[in-house]
């Protein structure tokens, strides 16, 4: 059931084992929805803190087709970690990194829609490499 969301995007349902490396099969969509809502609220707050220059620099890297997937992921990681240094210390570092990665992805895709697939893929790669354990802990905490 391909629902249309209020922002015009199709709803994200896990199908055919998508994101199987990140989530166990018993994780239901309601848990993911709860986590997503919490992260979206934090993202709205952090969105205002991200300077256009950071987004513009990342856009230029994503537009450079000569850069490998690893190089692009490294640039994204550097941007996320640089922005995270300015986040108040009362927020978990991993949560800040996760939300910043997602907000940057949104900003880049909004700025240059043709980059959506590349930036999404890079962000999933970044999250898988750097935040897998945190996501598993977060899902486990919500399930309890």
From TrEMBL:
SUPFAM superfamilies: Bcl-2 inhibitors of programmed cell death. InterPro entries: Bcl-2-like_sf (IPR036834), BID (IPR010479), EF_Hand_1_Ca_BS (IPR018247). GO terms for cellular component: cytosol; mitochondrial outer membrane. GO terms for biological process: cellular response to stress; intracellular signal transduction; positive regulation of extrinsic apoptotic signaling pathway; positive regulation of intrinsic apoptotic signaling pathway; positive regulation of release of cytochrome c from mitochondria; release of cytochrome c from mitochondria. Pfam families: BID. Keywords: Apoptosis, Cytoplasm, Membrane, Mitochondrion, Mitochondrion outer membrane. Its main location: cytoplasm. It comes from the Eukaryota. Signal peptide: none annotated. It is found in: Cytoplasm; Mitochondrion outer membrane. PANTHER family: BH3-INTERACTING DOMAIN DEATH AGONIST. This is BH3-interacting domain death agonist. It comes from Casuarius casuarius. The gene is Bid.
């Amino acid at each position: 059931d391909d629902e249309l969301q209020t922002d015009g995007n199709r709803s994200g349902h896990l199908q055919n084992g998508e994101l199987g490396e990140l989530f166990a099969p018993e994780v239901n969509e309601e848990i993911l929805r709860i986590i997503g809502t919490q992260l979206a609220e934090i993202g709205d707050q952090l969105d205002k803190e991200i300077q256009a220059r950071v987004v513009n620099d990342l856009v230029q890297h994503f537009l450079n087709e000569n850069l490998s997937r690893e190089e692009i992921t490294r640039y994204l990681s550097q941007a996320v970690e640089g922005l995270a240094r300015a986040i108040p210390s009362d927020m978990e570092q991993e949560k800040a990194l996760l939300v910043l990665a997602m907000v940057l992805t949104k900003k880049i895709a909004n700025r240059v829609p043709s980059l959506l697939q590349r930036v999404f893929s890079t962000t999933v790669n970044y999250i898988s490499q750097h935040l897998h354990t945190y996501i598993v802990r977060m899902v486990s905490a919500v399930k309890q």
